[in-house]
Amino acid sequence: MKPESRPDAVDLAERWRDLAAGKIIPGWHWHELDDRGEVIMKPRPSGPFRALTSAVATQLVNKLGTRVCCEVPVITNTFGVRVPTIVWAPPERWQGIELNEPLPFVPDLCVEVLDPKHVGHRTDLKIAAYLEGGAREVMVVEMSSGITYWDVRGERQFPALGVELSLGQLSPCGVGGCL
To answer: Which Pfam families match (predicted)?
Structure first.
């Protein structure tokens, strides 16, 4: 793929399939594609990140019901194929969707759980890409500082979809992780 070209959604999906099949980087499973289709390798998630992700997903399932999914690739209009930590969309948006492919839409809710051991998240670009792609809300969860809520107007004090997470339930050790 030429570095100066910007692939469309079909090209990004094809590149994603090749990447997921190990044709580009064998054995590497934590990755995204930027807006030019170039691979962004993500470090393997830490244990505290996985525990926090599970706690957030459980709360979302309890509040929203089914169709809460973790690590589902999403094609964005401006930032390539990204993999939000957790997504949710109403059941009717999932009809006919193949979960082995990147979603052709950005779900209504995208959650980014940030792993404190990894730097360079570029969360600002992900928030913008999800919202520009049609997300109604983006939540960013950080172990050390809690949760921020975003919609197309910017950062919000309260969640736009009315789904508030309880910080005390996010980790068996509370916010900040285990010591």
So the answer is: Uma2
The whole-model pTM stands at: 0.83
Angular region, 57: left φ>0, alpha ψ -120 to 50, beta rest = alpha
The per-residue pLDDT for range 121-162, each reduced to its tens digit, is: 688 889 999 999 999 999 999 877 789 999 999 999 999 898
Tell me which fold the domain 45-169 belongs to.
tt1808, chain A (3.90.1570)
Sheet containing strand 81-82, edge to edge, reads 39-41, 31-33, 81-82, 74-75
Domain ranges of the chain: 45-169
